[in-house]
Every structure is written in C-alpha cells, then in structure tokens.
Write a structure and sequence with these properties.
It is a single chain. It contains 3 helices and 8 strands. By secondary structure, the protein is of the alpha+beta class. The chain has one domain: TonB (TolA/TonB C-terminal domain, 2-Layer Sandwich). The strands form 3 sheets. It has a 4-stranded mixed beta sheet, with helices on one face. The longest helix has 14 residues.
Length: about 120
C-alpha cells in the first residue's frame, strides 16, 4: 500500500508582540503620520481637537509589512487611508527573532493626531 504524502504543516499564526518591542526593530518609515492639508482643513471645520485611529499591523519574518487592518477609524477616511498606505509602503523592520529564528509578528498601533 503506498504511503500517503505528508501534508505540510500550516504556518504558525504570527506572534502578538508589544508595540515597544517591534519599534525597537524599525529600520524605515516615520511613526508620525500627519493628515494632508485638505484633511486638516476638514478637521478644523468639524471642530475636532484630537483624532484617534488604531490598526493591527503584521510584519513578515523578513521584516516587511504583511497586513494592515484598521480597528478604529479616525473619522476621516482620507487620513485613515494615508495611515494605511504609509505603513504598507514605508515601514520596514529588522526581523523579529525568537530562539535564533526570524518570526512573523503582529502588534496594535494607536495614532493620535492633535491640532492643539
């Protein structure tokens, strides 16, 4: 009877790490992401003095961005999109290493924009 081919194990889910832990590995991208001037004008007209948006960010074992998921909107879609795009395009990390092996990781990031 022929033996069944072994099915490869599914990759482990990325480990959740504290933001400060991942920040220590950042090699590219600015963590301060400001809204564009048009959005700033909209924020002023709306009368908001502070915006908060949160995201789940997952990084591959190689240190590139794998996934950016918004968990709380700033209330301004253009600003939310700028945050997502900037993270995807600009942010890079040294690999996160556990027991000598690079690992995929995720973290929660909170952006706070204040006009005052």
């Amino acid at each position: 009877m022929p033996s069944a081919a072994a099915t490869p194990a599914a990759p482990a889910a990325p480990q959740l790490v504290a933001l400060t832990t991942l920040e220590a590995n950042r090699i590219a991208g600015d963590k301060v992401i400001l809204p564009d001037p048009t959005t700033v004008d909209s924020i002023n007209r709306w009368g908001a003095d502070k915006l908060v948006a949160t995201y789940k960010v997952c990084v591959t074992a190689a240190g590139t961005i794998d996934l950016v998921t918004q968990t709380k909107s700033s209330g301004f879609p253009a600003y939310d999109e700028k945050i997502r795009n900037t993270i995807r395009q600009d942010w890079r990390y040294h690999p996160y290493v556990v027991n000598g092996k690079p690992q995929a990781v995720c973290t929660a990031i909170r952006f706070v924009y204040s006009q005052k």
